[in-house]
Amino acid sequence: MEAMWNWFIMDLFKRRSTITMNELWHAFIDPNFPFLRYAFLSGILASISFGIVGSYVVTKNMVSLVGAISHSVLAGVGIALFLQHRYQIHYITPFYGALIAGVLSACSISFVSNYLTVRQDAVIGAIWAVGMAIGMVFLAYTPGYIDPMSYLFGSTFLITKNEIKNLIILDVVILAIAFVYYPQFWAYCFDEEFARVRNIPVMFLNILLLVMSAVTVVMMMPMVGIILVLAQLSLPVLIAEQLVSRLSLLMLYSVVLCMFTSTAGLIGSYKLDLPAGPIIVLTSMSVYILVALFRWVKNIYP
Q1: In angstroms, what CA-CA distances link 12 with 43, 63, 71?
Q2: What value does the mean pLDDT of the chain take?
Q3: pLDDT tens column, 65-96
Q4: Structural domains of the chain in order of their starting residue, each with its CATH number
Q5: Considering only 22-26, 146-150, 171-175, 216-220, which range has the smallest mean pLDDT?
Q6: For residue 289, is it left (φ>0), alpha (ψ between -120 and 50) or beta?
Q7: Average pLDDT in the 154-180 region?
Q8: Radius of gyration from C-alpha coordinates of the chain
Q9: Is the pLDDT of residue 184 over 90?
Q10: Following DSSP, what letter does each residue of the chain receive, concatenated?
Q11: Are the C-beta atoms of 16 and 270 separated by less than 8 Å?
């Protein structure tokens, strides 16, 4: 069965630029070859976390902070792969290494933002660059050949069943946090001074949001990669901001838009024989441009 599966995948990927939608659908529903279902399901599940966390991040103007976290994750990946291949420490996987690096970066950025009187943008840029540099150095010292492309840009069509389960758990946790802390996050995102006056735990919310962002980045790494994950966190929200203003509706619209762009991007990447992550991001950007042009024309010719 494994040999048959490998042959099917290789054959399908060789001719996917000419494959019809009917053939794609039959491959999608074939119970023997679940990789297509996993790819599309991962896009739908990822959209929930992208839409909710992205709404908070964009509203609070924290995109650059999350960008630093996402790029510093490569340090954890590089160290984990180095330990695995050099010292055979196999229980430290790239996933756990990335998760530890992401959470540590989130806590470091929160500490710098709240307690140190330094230029925040410079520190964010330093964490951004240093994380990437550490990751590349450890990858260079790792025995054998390690291709960082799957970590940097993702490999959506290689999503596994365990990664689908992780996405489901992440969505449940993110939805629970968003529901329980919605009033506090609303005040924190739109008026931090008001939140402090009302004795809302601003510091706790800051750390919580950054940690949520870090975990989301790590969970989405197999899908769109470290570099492109920031675009999927922000672009659907930027599109939704042109349509609605309420935070709850912004989250809902962002989730739906992310589902649409992910599905369309996956179909497009499969048809065009191109990497899925970049096509998903370009699809999101195309939708953003179309919506912006529509609003511009509507304002000129009401």
Answers
A1: 20, 38, 33
A2: 88
A3: 999 999 999 999 999 999 999 998 888 899 99
A4: 37-230 (1.10.3470.10)
A5: 22-26
A6: alpha
A7: 93
A8: 20
A9: yes
A10: -HHHHHHHHHHHHHTTTS--HHHHHHHHH-TT-THHHHHHHHHHHHHHHHHHHHHHHHHTT-HHHHHHHHHHHHHHHHHHHHHHHHH--TTS-HHHHHHHHHHHHHHHHHHHHHH--S-HHHHHHHHHHHHHHHHHHHHHHSSS---THHHHH--GGG--HHHHHHHHHHHHHHHHHHHHTHHHHHHHHH-HHHHHHTT--HHHHHHHHHHHHHHHHHHHHHHHHHHHHHHHHHHHHHHHHTT--SHHHHHHHHHHHHHHHHHHHHHHHHHHT--HHHHHHHHHHHHHHHHHHHHHHHHH--
A11: yes
Residue 189, pLDDT > 50, answer yes
